[in-house]
Amino acid sequence: MHPRLLTNLIDPKSGQPLTLTSPVPSPSEIEQGTLVASTGHSFPILHGIPRFVPASNYASSFGYQWNKYAELQLDSKNGTTFSEDRFFSITEWSKADLLGARVLDVGCGAGRFSEVVLRAGAHVVAVDLSQAVEACRKNLRSHANLDVVQASIYELPFRPGSFDFVYCIGVVQHTPDPKQSVLAIARMVRPGGRLGFWIYERDWKSYLGTIGFKYLLRPWTTSLTRDQVERFCNLLESFCWPINRVARKCGWLGKVVMRLLPVASAYLQEVPLSDHDFREWVRLDTFDMYSPAHDQPQKFNAVAQWLREAGFIVDPRHPHGGISLTARRPL
Description:
By secondary structure, the protein is α/β, with parallel strands linked by helices. The chain has helices at residues 60-68, 75-78, 82-91, 95-98, 112-119, 132-140, 178-186, 209-221, 226-247, 251-259, 275-290, 300-309, and strands at residues 18-25, 30-37, 42-46, 49-50, 102-106, 123-128, 146-150, 163-169, 189-199, 313-314, 323-328. Helix 1 (60-68) runs parallel beside helix 6 (132-140), helix 9 runs antiparallel to helix 10 (251-259) and helix 9 (226-247) packs across helix 11.
């Protein structure tokens, strides 16, 4: 944690400022210490990350997957621009917009989108409920403009309205209460600031192909242990690999075939990954399909209405599949 972050942190339970005690500094960061509020609430800093939640929680499967596949989705490691292209397609923000901005990444995982925003010259605070924060900091700690925090969406430990840009990609549907998640995230945006979401969409297309398999099998897979789900997903990937290996080279027809498989592979068809990285990514995303505790797709109009009621101006829908939505808090 950089000392600058302290001015923006608050006790998420009381809203009171925090005081740093017993710091153990490294050359530029605080590696260990305790954050204390006047209410008596205290929160540890471990491995340079302020911790506002217990280590184990409903997002533990995500912590496991992002530490196991920590570098797989980073553009800097896989040699593609897939994460960058996806981020700017979802948000329709520009690199010029982000230069020098204060940005909050909610549900950062291993940091694939934080890396994109840092490269655009922003100051990023990356937040995750799970132990994925360990992977994010390890991957991106060379960026001086990064801070990583472990916290809940429902109790974000920041002063409301303190970020220029806030985004949450692929996370809201995995929370217990999606509406309250959206509203809690929205409170972090300053007047004149921008907000971006990508959320699984609930419509007829969600129950075709791969997604249909997901909702058919999840009632069973969510009753399994994490290791059992992982073995099941790896077995599925191995079974489907001979088909994927051919189909990913066969254009639109191959994509149709891939959509009918019980693994998450179709959207990766055109990404120029090696066979090894492709298979690892399919294993990761298939585990991501079947393991989360919560999976609640939403309707675009419902999410847009939540934001309008919170005072935001919602942009027209973006053509990116799912609920790709951005909004602005008026000045």
